[in-house]
Amino acid sequence: MKLIKRLVVMVCLLCCIFTFTACEKDDKIKVGILQSATHSALDSARLGFIEALKNAGYDESKITLDVQNPEGNPSNMQLMAKTLVRKSDIVLGVATDAAVALKAAANTEGVNIPILFTAVTDAVDASLVESNEHPGGKVTGTSDINPVSDQIALAKQLKNDLKTIGILYTISETNSKVQADMAIAEIKKEGLEYIERTVTGVTDIQQTVKKIIADGAEIIYIPTDNNLAKNIAIVGDIANDSKVPLICGEENMVKAGGFITFGVNYTKLGEMVGDMAVKILEGTEPKDIPVGTLSKDQCNLVINTDTLALLNIQVPDEIMEKATKVKTE
Amino acid sequence: MLDTLRFIITDSLNLGFAYGLLALGIFISYRLLDFADLTAEGSFTLGGAFTAALIFNGINPILSTFLSIFVGFIAGIITGLLHTKLKIPSLLSGIITMTALFSINMILMGIGKDSKYDSVVYLSKLDTIYELFSVFKLRYLNIILLNFIIVSLVTLFCYWLFGTEFGMSLRATGMNQKMARAQGINTSLMIIIGLGISNALISLSAALVAQANQSADVNMGIGTLVVGLASIIIGEAIFGKRNFCNWIISVVLGSVLYYLIIDIAINLGLDSYLLKLLYAIIIIIVLTAPLIKKRIITLKRKKKNVEN
Amino acid sequence: MLKIENITKEFNLTGAIEDRRIALNNISLDIHDGDFVTIIGGNGSGKSTLMNIIAGVFPPDSGNVYIDGENVTKLTEYKRAKYLGRVFQDPNVGTAPNMSIEENMELATRRDQKKTLRWGFRKEHRDKFIKSLASLNLGLETRLSQKVGLLSGGQRQAVTLLMATFKRPKVLLLDEHTAALDPKTARKVLELTDTIVHDQHLTTIMITHNMRDALKYGNRLIMLHHGQIIFDVKGEEKNKLTPEDLLKKFDELENQDEEELNN
C-alpha cells in the first residue's frame, strides 16, 4: 500500500512540475543538435553548422536551437537523442555515435524527421546511409574522410630519405581505424615501411609513443582520433624530444601541439552540412543529397611554428609558403 | 506539455526496465553477497557485444539474447574463482576480469568482419528481438512491453531463487561467512555462483539495451556501475526494503526513478555539463532523506512529551 | 567420539623468529562419547587454536583429528560442519543478522545436507522451531519472522545454541560463548547449555576463562599451557577441585615462565 501511495505522489509531483513549465507554442523551426562530447573539432563543426544556417537567414528569429551533449555517457546519449527527435523538426548528429543514436531514436520513437550528420568518417559502414551517392533514407550529412594520401605524400616531402612511418591511434575508435587502414594502403603504395601501434586510453599513450619511436618511426601519423586529439600534448612532448614530426589528422590537433596537417577543416565541414539543412528545410529530400566531403582545395595545410622550433628540422620552402602558420594554444 | 510528460514516463520505463536488470545484478553482488564487484562494466559491454555480434552474423535474436545470460555468467564465475581460489582481493578480481573483457569484447565485435577486432557493431539493418516482438506499431512501446515482461520474469525468478535452500545459503554467505561455513555452506561455491548470476543479469540487461539502441560499442558499459548502485540506493530509500519481495521490486523501480529524474532534467533544458552535478545532488538528497525522516519523527515525539 | 592425535600448529612460519609461535605442541586428546569437557588456559595457551583445528578452520601442521572414528583432518570447515555444532564468542558471528530467526533456524536444519533448490521455508519445521524456542523461555517463539540483528546478545547466543544442536551434532564446540555477555545473561545461557547437553547427551567441549564455571559444568577439565595439556581431571577428582586450586596452578606456571625467561 505504501508503495502505491508513494508512486501516486511521484506522478502528481511530476504533473505539477510540468504545468509550471511554460509550453512554447510558436512557429519557429526546431533544430536539435546532439554532440557526443566536447572536443575542438566537433565544436568547430557544430559552430560552422549554426553559422551556415544564420547566413541563409535561419537565425534566432526563425529557429530554436537545442544543443545536447552527453559527454560520452551512453544512457544520457539515448535519452537526449529521444528527446531531440521528438521535439525537433530536423536534427544534427555531431560524430558517429551521436548520429547513430539519433537514427535509432527516430526509429524507436516512430518519428520521421530528417537526420543530418557531420564528423562521421564512414557513413555507409555505420549504416547511416545506403551509399554515399544515394543516401536513400532520411539521413545524410558530411564526412570528415581525410585526404590521407596527401598526408602521406606530405611525409615524403618533409623527409626525402623517409623509410618508416609510424601510425598511432586509439583502438576503440572506428573512425581512426578506417583512416589508419587507408594510410597503410597509401604507405605501401609509396613503397615505405610502417609501424602500426594502438593505445587503449590515456594511460598507455606515453609508453606507446616511446615504443613506436624506438622501433624506428621517423614520422608519426595520427588520424582524427578523439582520445589522441584530447591528449596530443602528451604525444607531442615525447615526439618533439626525439625530433619526430607529428602529422595530424586535422588542424585543431596541430594547434594543440602537433606539427603539421593537411586536413579537413571542421568548420567548413559544419558549414557544408548547414547548407544541406537549408536545402532540406526548403523542400529537398535527404535521400537526394549525397554525402558531402571536402575537396582538396577545401583542406588546409597548417603548420605549428612553435613545434617547428622544438623539432629544429628543415621544412621545404613550398610547404612553408602554402601553409597557414599557427602557434600552440 | 502533457506530451512531454508522457514521453518522460515512456523514456524512463524504457530505460528503467532494461537497466533494472543491471540494478538487480549489482544488487545481488553488492547487497546480497556483500562483494564489491567491479566486473559490471566489463560484463555489461560483454552482453551487448556478444549479442550484437551473434545477430550481426545471422543468429536468431531471441537465441542471441538468451545466450548473453551464459556469457555473463561465465564472466562472473571467473571473478569468483580469482577471488576464492587464487585469493585475489575482491576489488582486484573484478578489475582483472573487467580489463580482460575489453579485449574479448573487441574480438567479439570483429567476428564476421574483415579485421580481427572492431569497437562497434551496427544493428539497424538487422532484426532484433524488438522487431520480432511487434505487438504495437510504435517500436518504443514494444520495447517497454517486452522489457517489462523480461524484468518481471527475472524478478520473480530472483524472488524464488533466494527463497530456496540454495538462495538462503547464498544470502547467509553474504551476511556472515563464518556462520555460513559453520552451517555447512560451501561459501566459496556460493560466491562463485552468486557472482555468476549477478553478471548474467548484467549481460542480459546489455543485450536488451544494445538491441533497443541498434548498436553495441566497446564504451557502452561506462558509468553503468554507478547507475546500478544509484538505482539501488534510490529504490531502497524511496520504496523501502521491509521484506525481500519489497526489496527487489524497489531495486527495479529505483532504476525507473533514476532515469525519470535524469530525463526530467534533460527535458527541463538543464545544460548537459550540469547533469553530473545533478546526480551528486540527487544522491545526497536520497541518502539523507531517511535521516531527515528520523529527525522529524524525533522532533514530533519531543513535542508530544512536552505537551504531556 | 573425538580423538586428537599428535597435533602441532605453528603460526608465522615464514616470518621472523620472534614472530613464530607454536600454538599447539604435539597435543593428543581422547574425548569419549558423552564427555562434557571444559578447557581453561591463559592467553596464548592454544585453546582457540585447538577449537579451530577441531572445527577445520585451518589444517594442522601435523597430526590427525578423528570424529566418531572417522579421520576428518582433510575435511575443510564447511564439510566438517555436519559433525559439529558451534557457538562462538562473538554473538554476531553465530547468526545471520539480516535474516529472520526462522530463516536462521532453517539454515541450521540443513547443516548436514546438500543445499537444493527446494523452497527454503518448511511448514513442518515451523512448529518444531516454535517448540524449541519456547523452551528457552525468552519469548522468542512469537517472533519467528523478526530479524536476528534486532535481538540482544544473549538472545542471539541462545538462538545460536539452538541452531548448533537442532540437528544432533557429534560434538558441540563452545568457544567462550558467554564471555561477551553480562553476568546475568551469561548465567542463563550457561544453564541453558547445561540443560541441552544433558537432555541430548551431547559430547561437548567448552572453552571458558571463568574458573568457577569450568569446575561447575562438565565432567572433565583440561588445562592448556603453551600448546600442551598440563592438567586433565575427570569425575571425582574434578569435583574435589576449587577455583583457588586452579589459580595456584596458574601462578605456578607463570613463575615457571618467568624463570625460563630470566635464564
Explain the overall architecture.
The complex is a heterotrimer of chains A (329), B (308) and C (263). Chain A is an alpha/beta fold and 329 residues long. In chain A, 45% of the residues lie in helices and 19% in strands. A six-stranded parallel β-sheet of chain A has the order 2-1-3-4-5-11, with helices on both faces. Chain A has a four-stranded parallel β-sheet with strand order 7-6-8-9, with helices on both faces. A three-stranded mixed β-sheet of chain A has the order 10-12-13. The radius of gyration of chain A is 22 Å and the shape is elongated. Chain A starts with a helix and ends with a strand. Chain B has one domain. Chain B has twelve helices and two strands; from the N terminus they run H-H-H-H-E-H-H-H-H-H-E-H-H-H. Chain B is mostly helical. Chain C has 263 residues and is an alpha/beta fold. Chain C is built from nine helices and ten strands. The longest helix of chain C is centred in the last third of the chain and has 20 residues. The model of chain C has no long low-confidence stretch (mean pLDDT 87). At the A-B interface, helix 1, helix 3 and helix 4 of A face helix 1, helix 6, helix 10 and helix 11 of B.
Morphology of chain B? globular
Beta-strand content estimate of chain A: 15-25%
Task: State the distance separating the first and last CA atoms of chain A.
Answer: 61 Å
H-E string of chain A: HEHEHEHEEHEHEHEHHEHEHEEHHE
- Count the E strands of chain B: 2
What's the order of the H and E elements of chain B? HHHHEHHHHHEHHH
The rounded Rg of chain A comes to 22 Å
Q: Sheet with the most strands of chain A?
A: 6 strands, parallel
| Rough outline of chain A | elongated
* Mean pLDDT score of chain B: 91
Q: What percentage of amino acids of chain B are in beta strands?
A: under 5%
What gyration radius of chain B follows from the Cα positions, in whole Å? 21 Å
Chain pair with largest interface: A-B, 47 and 57 residues
Q: What fold name stands as the CATH topology of the largest domain in chain A? A: Rossmann fold
Largest sheet of chain B: 2 strands, antiparallel
Number of domains as seen in the coordinates of chain B: 1
Structural class of chain B: mainly alpha
Please report the number of helical segments of chain B.
12
